[in-house]
Every structure is written in C-alpha cells, then in structure tokens.
C-alpha cells in the first residue's frame, strides 16, 4: 500500500497521538512488528521518527501491518481508528485474544499435601544425618540417644506418610 503525502501526514499524526513518547512507539514496533525502531527509523524528534517509520513500512510493503499493529497496540485511539476507516481498513480491528488462563488456586488438600511432603523431606534429612552420626560415633554412650532419635524420626515419618496417603485417598 502506497500512501499519498496527505495520508502520510495523517498517519504520522495518528501515530503521534497514539504513541506520544518515543518509548511507547518503540514498544509498539517491537511487539507488533517484531522490529527494533532505532534500527529501522531514525530522526531527532518523535515526529521525524514516526515519519521515518512510515517510509520504512512503505519501502518494505508493511504499511497495512504498521497500521494494524498500531491499532492493536492502542485499540481505543480514535485517530488511528479514523485513519484506518478513511483508508477502508476500518475492519482491521485488533484480534480479541482469549484471556490467559489463570491456574486455579491450589486446593486446601494440595496445600496441605505440599506442606506434609516438605515436612517428610525434612524428617528424612534428619534421619539420614542421625544415621550417619550413629555409624561414625565412637563413644558408646552416644549410641542409645541416637538410636532413640532414629526411632522417633521413623515413627514421625510413618505418621506424616500416612497423613499424605489419607489426603490422596480421602474416605
């Protein structure tokens, strides 16, 4: 699509109305066109950059894509809507993308299960540490307390495992 001089001025003004800051225009170009604004359109002022962007779009055959992308990036902008309507591109409405699915909040059972699994991991680490200490201890007086600690940890691990299984298979 080749624009007339008046249409270029109109599109430039519409872009400036929709994207009043250079960063806004830069983001739109990156997101909607997949291009780096600074690499494709130069200029000292935002007005010159917008003009340069339009020239780039015309040279590369992406004018309609620029207009559609600008509208998607700022769908409520009346200047862009009017410009597209004047070119008979009014039907290029931004596609309505489905909302990003939000994962459901974890259930109480899932939360409790994660807590119990974490508790079981901690108990298992304590059991492993106590087992290593029992194997490496040379003092006979230290052995009975360690053996008692291992028995308590075994009982507690079995209880936590039973609680996890109960959460998995409620009666």
Layout: helices, strands, pairs:
Layout: H1 5-18, H2 22-33, H3 37-40, H4 46-59, H5 63-73, H6 78-86, H7 108-136, H8 143-168
Describe the structure.
By secondary structure, this protein is an all-alpha fold. Helices cover 70% and strands 0% of the residues. It has helices at 5-18, 22-33, 37-40, 46-59, 63-73, 78-86, 108-136, 143-168. Helix 4 (46-59) packs across helix 5 and helix 7 runs antiparallel to helix 8 (143-168).
Helix content: 55-70%
Strand percent estimate: under 5%
Quickly count the domains.
Answer: 2
Mean pLDDT: 88
Concise structural overview:
This protein is mostly helical and about 170 residues long. The protein has two domains: about 5-85; about 110-170.
Task: Summarize this structure as a short list of keywords or feature phrases.
171 residues; mainly alpha; 2 domains; 8 helices
């Amino acid at each position: 699509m080749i624009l007339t001089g008046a249409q270029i001025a109109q599109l430039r003004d519409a872009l400036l109305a929709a994207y009043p800051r250079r960063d806004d225009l830069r983001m739109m170009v990156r997101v909607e066109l997949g291009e780096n604004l600074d690499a494709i359109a130069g200029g000292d002022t935002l007005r010159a950059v917008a003009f340069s962007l339009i020239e780039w779009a015309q040279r590369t055959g992406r004018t309609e894509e620029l207009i559609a992308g600008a509208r998607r990036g700022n769908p409520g902008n009346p200047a862009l809507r009017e410009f597209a309507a004047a070119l008979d591109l009014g039907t290029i409405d931004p596609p309505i993308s489905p909302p990003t699915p939000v994962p459901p909040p974890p259930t109480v059972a899932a939360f409790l299960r994660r807590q119990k699994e974490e508790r079981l991991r901690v108990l298992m680490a304590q059991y492993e540490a106590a087992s290593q200490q029992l194997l490496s201890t040379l003092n006979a007086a230290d052995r009975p307390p360690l053996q008692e600690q291992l028995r308590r940890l075994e009982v507690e691990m079995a209880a936590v495992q039973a609680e996890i299984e109960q959460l998995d298979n409620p009666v």
